[in-house]
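Shift notes (night). Ran CRISPR-associated protein Csc1 while the centrifuge was going.
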Amino acid sequence: MTAALEVTLRTQGEVWFASREVGRLADTEPYFLNTALYYALGLASGRYVDRSFEPTYLDDTDAVADELYVTPATPSDSPGTGLANRITSTYNTSSDDYATINYAATDDENTDASRNLPTYGRRRVLGHGNELTCYIVGRGLDAGELDARVPGYVRLGKKRGKARVETEPLTVSEGSGGFDLGHPIGAYDTALTPVGNLVTKRMRPTPLVMQASYEGSYLELETPDGDDEDGEDDDGVRLPADATFLETKR
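Came back to this:
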């Protein structure tokens, strides 16, 4: 038994994290990696105090990796939705050191300490009203059990911005042969090797496979009536049948 959900995330305020840094600009790109979504959705939990400063994704998701697969989230392609609001701001602030050293700046070995240098930069974030979509595949679960595992709201990003979560059950069928990837996945989430049409996107900590053609077993996710919201035929979303979080790293 395999169930699947289409999950829509609607930002309810600013969501910020540094996808890339160009000079003094810290840019939040409209992609939520599944390295973040497993934690945001409450499917995994990490250490409250981390003194090793090394990723623990494999250990944290070991109990659910075979049962639940969450794709990365990308802007919705529904008309009038998707990436609707990005906010760019400039900040100018003092250092966030925990203590002030009380001695003359001229005595500091750090030559910059004697200068009045501001800390400034620009930040581009996802604002209110952006809509992103991901998919959750549950193995050995029915749609009701899978839906019960998904919270109504999540917190995302460095400042834990709020996003509303909406779900829609999908039908799942299996097939084999050549297929095109229907939604981005993590670069390490399948053992299949792309045979063509490959487009990747560099992200941290894992790259995304934005599109690719594969040869092998796949899952096809479709709305129950086979139509999309506009009443047109839905070709479904195809994912590798072995799609597992960080599959090739386990």
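The two ends are 24 Å apart (CA to CA). The longest helix spans residues 34-40.
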